[in-house]
Write a structure and sequence with these properties.
The protein is an alpha/beta fold and about 260 residues long. It is built from ten helices and nine strands. The protein has an eight-stranded parallel beta barrel with strand order 1-2-4-5-6-7-8-9, surrounded by five helices.
């Protein structure tokens, strides 16, 4: 009998369960834990610079009422240490510029990153403005980066203008999205595992599947047996300590 498949694990916003999300601290912790894949979110600031941030504002992660989309990046000096979750344990934690994250990631040549451009930035600044500035940054690190988004037009734009792999995050799992996926032919399809029918393999196609947010090793292995290649998890450290998932860890940085 062949060995059952082992999924690749993707660190959701870094080591989300134990560290402030979308910070280099969380990404570094995920890499140190053995993550081969990272996922993080980016927003575009008023000066057209990109920072790692899930929300448009800093209220949740910094407890400061500031809109990142209308503020120049150099003025985003608040500490994003997530005081509501962690108190002052990680204070101060600076906002991470995308350029810095990509530069540091290059020291881990085996690692790859799913970089999600957020819909708030696309809506506020405009599709062309955002994509014309974002794609050259990612293309310079094309061997390590995948552009992902809920926004289908952004992925179509990327397909037309560069060679980056792309991943579409689905809001629904239905025939309409299947037809759109077949037309786009993304490298990855990404979905919340609760949206997929239980006990069935996901749609076949030219893509790999990534499901989120799973923290149960057995559940991850069951989805792998149904053809899911990547599992996004908030608890990358605990997942990689599972004996069946541990062989998929990466531990060597390109120092």
């Amino acid at each position: 009998m062949p060995n059952p498949p082992i999924p690749s694990l993707v660190a959701h916003r870094g080591y989300l369960r134990q560290y402030p999300e979308n910070t280099w601290l969380a990404l570094q912790a995920a890499l140190d834990a053995g993550a081969c894949w990272l996922e993080f979110d980016v927003q575009m600031c008023a000066d057209c610079q990109f920072v790692l941030l899930h929300d448009a504002g800093l209220g949740r992660t910094a407890d400061v009422e500031m809109d990142a989309l209308t503020t120049p990046s150099h003025q985003l000096t608040a500490s994003v240490h997530e005081p509501q979750r962690f108190g002052d344990r990680f204070a101060p934690t600076p906002i991470t510029p995308l350029s810095e994250a990509l530069r540091r990631l290059a020291r881990w040549p085996r690692a790859r990153a799913m970089v999600e451009i957020k819909q708030e930035s696309l809506a506020h600044h405009g599709l062309d403005v955002v994509m014309r500035r974002l794609l050259p940054l990612l293309q310079a690190h094309a061997e390590q980066c995948v552009l992902i988004s809920y926004d289908l037009p952004a992925l179509v734009w990327s397909r037309r203008h560069c060679t980056l792999p792309v991943g579409w995050v689905l809001t629904r799992y239905d025939e309409t999205r299947l037809a759109q996926a077949r037309q786009l032919a993304p490298d990855f399809l990404i979905c919340n595992e609760r949206k997929l029918p239980p006990q069935q393999p996901p749609w076949p196609g030219p893509w790999q599947w990534m499901l989120y947010d799973i923290v149960d090793p057995q559940q991850a292995l069951e989805w792998a047996a149904r053809g899911v290649s990547l599992i996004e998890t908030a608890d990358i450290g605990a997942m990689l300590r599972h004996p069946r998932l541990a062989p998929g860890a990466c531990h060597r940085a390109g120092l």
